[in-house]
Amino acid sequence: MPGPRRSITETEQAIRQRLGGLTLQREAMAAVGNIHRAAAAVRSHLENSVLRPHELTWTSFVVLWVLWIWGEAETWSVAEEAGISKGTLTGISRTLESRGLVARSPHPEDRRRVLLSLTPEGEKLMEELFPAFNAEEAFVSASLSPEECLRLADSLRTIVGRLEEHGEQRRRELLAGEDLAPRRSGRRPRP
Amino acid sequence: MPGPRRSITETEQAIRQRLGGLTLQREAMAAVGNIHRAAAAVRSHLENSVLRPHELTWTSFVVLWVLWIWGEAETWSVAEEAGISKGTLTGISRTLESRGLVARSPHPEDRRRVLLSLTPEGEKLMEELFPAFNAEEAFVSASLSPEECLRLADSLRTIVGRLEEHGEQRRRELLAGEDLAPRRSGRRPRP
DNA sequence: CTCTTATCGTTTGGCATCAAATGATCGCCC
DNA sequence: GGGCGATCATTTGATGCCAAACGATAAGAG
């Protein structure tokens, strides 16, 4: 563990000094700033504890989880439920299929679509893994009371819901006047 | 926008059905499950609104932010403050340096270390960009009252603090008996 | 001084991730 | 039933990201 670490409180004091003159939404800044930090910390902890022996990443676990909860489902729906893009899901599900945890089958009525489901081994893994995963969820939030956990979850849901509902329009408004440089990422059109 | 989307509440009903027989920490699950979701949503919104015209990712913005708040700092400290690994910071700071936003200078007393700081252009950018960034932080959390924002931030800080304090020991305990396969990622020892 | 050990930042390998392009297939209209 | 646009999963290219290996330097022991 490296030496002198600045506490979060110290950080916020430094911010206050630096921004003393500016009007700003301090509450919003505190909330948003900590969401990403907490997400990274929790993800790292879970990947390096319960998921590590099974060589699963956070994302591949979430995909298994979605299939466990919802049963057989179409890929676009799994991607949305897991919060990843369809392209990412293609890679993840290929990996999980090669490990025998996930099965892919063609949609009976539409050959463009693909259905994903857990194999029996996948089910077995989740039945064994999920209690351990949940125990770690409990560990990371053990300093909060159940009521605080629910309030936390509720606030986060509110934010997600707001972005799902109004985010796209907001971005359109903000970027209306801009002419954006083409993104670096993404496939190039063939010449 | 794709068609029938399952609401979060529907999801949680399905979970209850699937896990009806298992004892589990539902509050913890709700909290952890939503942290990652909210973080991804917020990050995506900010990258695709205020950060997009400046071609900054979330992470590179955070690095600029840390340097803006703390001034000149050593790389390990910036990495920790930004919540990324040293290796990632190397790439980020190289990019930011090539764009003239960040300067690197050798430590006066130890030639292994490197000091990072904002260039005047970097400073100028942050003075202009931060208010817009903060306005979007306010937008994403506008459905919450200031008190709810503070409570949210506080709960998240509690989780981060707990993991910083007890996470490593917990992982050691959990993995004590396991013999882990070597990780897929990471540099290979030369033969 | 020489040797060893610790500690920097950087490099490297592998996966995750996204968005746009792409090809396959479907639905519809005439 | 032939064609045309919409919609699906996949491919592709670039970047983000981590952890371990690595080279350079510092600090300590004898």
Describe this protein's structure.
Chains A, B: This is MarR family transcriptional regulator. By secondary structure, chain A is mainly alpha-helical. Chain A has two domains: 27-140, Arc Repressor Mutant, subunit A, CATH 1.10.10; 142-171. Chain A is 61% helix and 6% strand. Chain A has seven helices and three strands; from the N terminus they run αααβααββαα. In chain A, helix 3 (58-70) packs across helix 4 and helix 4 (75-82) packs across helix 5. Chain A starts with 7 loop residues before the first helix and ends in a 17-residue tail after the last helix. Mean pLDDT of chain A is 84; it is low at 1-5. Chains A and B meet through helix 1, helix 2, helix 3, helix 4 and helix 6 of A and helix 1, helix 2, helix 3, helix 4 and helix 6 of B. Chain B binds a DNA duplex (30 and 30 nucleotides) through helix 5.
Keywords:
homodimer, 191 residues, mainly alpha, Arc Repressor Mutant, subunit A, three-stranded antiparallel beta sheet, 61% helix, 6% strand, disordered N terminus, DNA-binding, DNA-binding transcription factor activity (chains A, B), MarR family transcriptional regulator (chains A, B), DNA-binding (chains A, B), DNA binding (chains A, B), HTH_MarR-typ (chains A, B)
